[in-house]
Specification:
This protein is of the alpha/beta class. The strands form three sheets. It has a seven-stranded mixed β-sheet with strand order 4-10-9-8-7-5-6, sandwiched between helices. It has a four-stranded mixed β-sheet with strand order 1-2-3-13. A hairpin with a 2-residue loop joins strand 11 and strand 12. Helix 3 packs antiparallel against helix 10, helix 7 runs parallel beside helix 8 and helix 11 packs parallel to helix 13. The two termini are 33 Å apart.
């Protein structure tokens, strides 16, 4: 059955549409933190559909909300008043930390970042964007143009002029050997120097923890230090929270809060986990930025009733069950467990991350050279152990990505760590 489906996939879908595994799998259903493939094999899901099944598979509260909304009306567009959209926007505006916030819903993180770029460049009357090296912001023409990771940037053409800043990767690059404080000082000096060479840009866009880049991050406070410089130059700060939002990092509800000493971002984007699998993305911005557009616009599918119902139910469950706290507690245990089991595995450079957003960087033993073949092999071995994980990395990096649903239990964390240890040991 899988071979037949794979043949049909290859016949009608693009060659560049990535598939995991030498023998790609079809996931047919899920429950809690587990999924099943078409052959009936059960897996513990440590990747959640790329951090999208944030709460749990087949969460009854979300399934019920979707079913009930589908029985009333699924869609009407933003040309009509939409109660679920207003209610979710109110919740997100209040939780965002951005004063006088306005919310615009999209269908994906790519579209959210695209909208943020349009807002920033319009507000600032500049097409110049600062972005981080090793970053990823989506698949659209403008988002690819600001992505600092060549593996996910298929064209150098762009409607924007992009300048790349140091700081997204702590353990590699020219400042890797510095202390955290000196690292921040050096990165701020680099930003100051960069701003001195050209016209003032529209915005800096940054993921608090880089997702596709392998769950890398700077020391806490870097973007706060950047913010001080940016404010002097009138440059906006866009926080890309597509992967870090909704409590996944455990310590904070939003990733930017680890860098919040100089206030919240001017613009924040979100997607993925809020819909628990439904297509929701969005932008939050203070009113003067959001309202800077001088022509009409709509969103045909952004904010549609059925996705908003799912988002409301999912957000309610997340808050009522303190899944941020669970990410902090269980994620902390999982990180320490993984660090303990990898100390004797030469292929592991480091275990990093916070909450339930964890990266394991792999190198060729005895070197600092990335080992993407090892990452692919561990991915396959983990599948054989009944565990689904992800992978990523940028320039000369290769990392395993671990991001289970935020309802992960301690027992499941131990089960996943044991399976991952066996997978890591099996390749050497």
């Amino acid at each position: 059955m899988t071979d037949e489906l794979l043949g049909r996939h290859k016949a009608v879908l693009p060659d560049w549409l990535a598939l995991y595994y030498a023998d790609p799998m079809e996931i047919t259903h899920g429950e809690g933190r587990h999924v099943w493939d078409a052959a009936g094999n059960k897996y513990l899901d440590f990747f959640g559909g790329i951090l999208t099944t944030m709460t749990a598979h087949a969460l009854p509260e979300v399934s019920k909300a979707v079913s009930e909304q589908a029985g009333r009306i699924i869609h009407s567009s933003t040309l009509y008043l939409n109660r679920p959209m207003v209610e979710l926007a109110e919740r997100i505006a209040q939780m965002s930390g951005i004063p006088d916030a306005r919310v615009f819903f999209t269908t994906s993180g790519t579209e959210a970042n695209d909208t943020a770029l349009m807002l920033a460049t319009t507000y600032r009357r500049s097409n110049q964007i600062l972005a981080m090296r090793n970053s990823y912001h989506g698949r659209s023409f403008s988002a690819v143009g600001i992505t600092g990771n060549k593996s996910w940037s298929p064209t150098s053409l762009s409607p924007l002029q992009t300048l790349y800043v140091h700081g997204g990767v702590r353990t590699r690059g020219p400042y890797a050997d510095l202390s955290d404080a000196d690292f921040i000082t050096a990165c701020v000096a680099d930003l100051e120097d960069l701003l001195g060479h050209g016209r003032p840009p529209a915005a800096l866009i940054a993921e608090p923890i880089q997702g596709v880049g392998g769950f890398t991050s700077p020391p806490d406070g870097l973007y706060a230090a950047f913010r001080e410089v940016l404010q002097r130059h009138g440059v906006l700060w866009i926080a890309d929270e597509v992967q870090t939002g909704w409590g996944r990092t455990g310590d904070n509800f939003w990733g930017w809060q680890a860098h919040g000493q100089n206030g919240p971002p001017d613009i924040m984007t979100f997607a993925k986990g809020i819909g628990n699998g439904m297509s929701i993305g969005g932008v939050v911005a203070r009113a003067e930025v959001m309202n800077c557009l001088d022509s009409n616009s709509i969103s045909t599918f952004g904010g549609t009733q059925i996705t908003m119902a799912a988002g409301l139910a999912n957000l309610n469950y997340l808050v009522e069950h303190d899944l941020q706290g669970n990410a902090r507690r269980v994620g902390g245990l999982l990180i320490e467990r993984l660090r303990a089991i990898t100390t004797q595995i030469p292929a592991v450079k480091e275990v990093r991350g916070r909450g339930l957003m964890i990266g394991i960087e792999l190198v060729r033993p005895g070197t600092q050279e990335a080992d993407p073949e090892a990452a692919a092999a561990v991915l396959e071995a983990a599948r054989r152990e009944g565990l689904l994980i992800g992978k990523g990395g940028g320039h000369n990096t290769s990392a395993l990505r671990i991001a289970p649903p935020l309802s992960l239990t301690v027992a499941e964390a131990e089960e996943g760590a044991d399976a991952l240890e066996r997978a890591l040991r099996s390749i050497h």
